[in-house]
């Protein structure tokens, strides 16, 4: 089931990346394109068939996982503030792009690099599944979800309010889909600190959340195309 969700999330994210290409060439919302590009890369690197050959090229020491984590941080930074602005949530945007959000981003990025260097990670292992008994790896995986969890927590209220507002049905469906995705990201962060971190629940939460968020953003675009002003 997790493998199906991984590939489904990859296809969805690649589709969203291609969907943003025309806007990229016109110089509009380039950050959204690069966010989807990075998310596609991260989802691809979560799939063993892609991760293993890539990591071998990088030395076989699981540096591909570091690329995945830092790429995800960058994607969240690019995308989360735009979503907050779209839902008229200045406080959420200030949390994400303000001093607190930047401090969380820098601390998590440094934490990833430090715990990676403290770990013995010889031999490629997707998701670092083969090294889960090392305290530094446990810390690494929690830190790897922390920034996304922080940004997602900031966006649950704005998208949830929009989902139950008087907006058109398609816009409410988009907001609800994103709200469910952000809630799933937060649940995955909590589950990472429990024995459930070793179960398939983590995969379902992680990739299910990506699918919900990507679907919500796609619905926003469909709603925009159906409006009076079209790109």
Automatic annotation (TrEMBL):
Bilayer-crossing regions: 6-25, 32-54, 66-87, 99-118, 138-157, 169-191, 203-225
Q: Which UniProt keywords apply?
A: Membrane, Transmembrane, Transmembrane helix
Q: What is this protein called?
A: Uncharacterized protein
> Which organism encodes this protein?
Arthrobacter livingstonensis
* UniProt lineage: Bacteria, Bacillati, Actinomycetota, Actinomycetes, Micrococcales
């Amino acid at each position: 089931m997790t493998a199906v969700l991984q590939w489904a999330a990859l296809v969805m994210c690649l589709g969203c990346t291609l969907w943003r290409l025309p806007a990229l060439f016109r110089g509009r919302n380039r950050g959204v394109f690069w966010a989807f590009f990075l998310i596609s890369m991260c989802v691809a690197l979560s799939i063993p068939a892609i991760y293993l050959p890539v990591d071998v090229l990088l030395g076989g020491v699981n540096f591909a996982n570091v690329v995945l984590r830092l790429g995800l941080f960058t994607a969240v930074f690019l995308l989360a503030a735009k979503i907050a602005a779209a839902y008229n949530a200045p406080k959420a945007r200030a949390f994400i792009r303000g001093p607190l959000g930047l401090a969380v981003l820098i601390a998590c990025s440094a934490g990833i690099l430090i715990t990676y260097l403290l770990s013995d990670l010889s031999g490629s292992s997707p998701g670092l599944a083969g090294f889960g008994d090392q305290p530094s790896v446990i810390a690494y995986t929690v830190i790897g979800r922390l920034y996304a969890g922080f940004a997602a927590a900031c966006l649950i209220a704005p998208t949830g309010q929009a989902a139950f507002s008087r907006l058109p049905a398609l816009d409410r469906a988009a907001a609800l889909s994103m709200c469910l995705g952000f809630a799933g990201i937060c649940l995955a962060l909590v589950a990472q600190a429990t024995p459930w971190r070793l179960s398939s629940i983590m995969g379902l939460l992680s990739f299910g959340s990506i699918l919900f968020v990507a679907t919500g953003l796609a619905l926003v675009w469909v709603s925009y195309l159906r409006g009076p002003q079209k790109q």
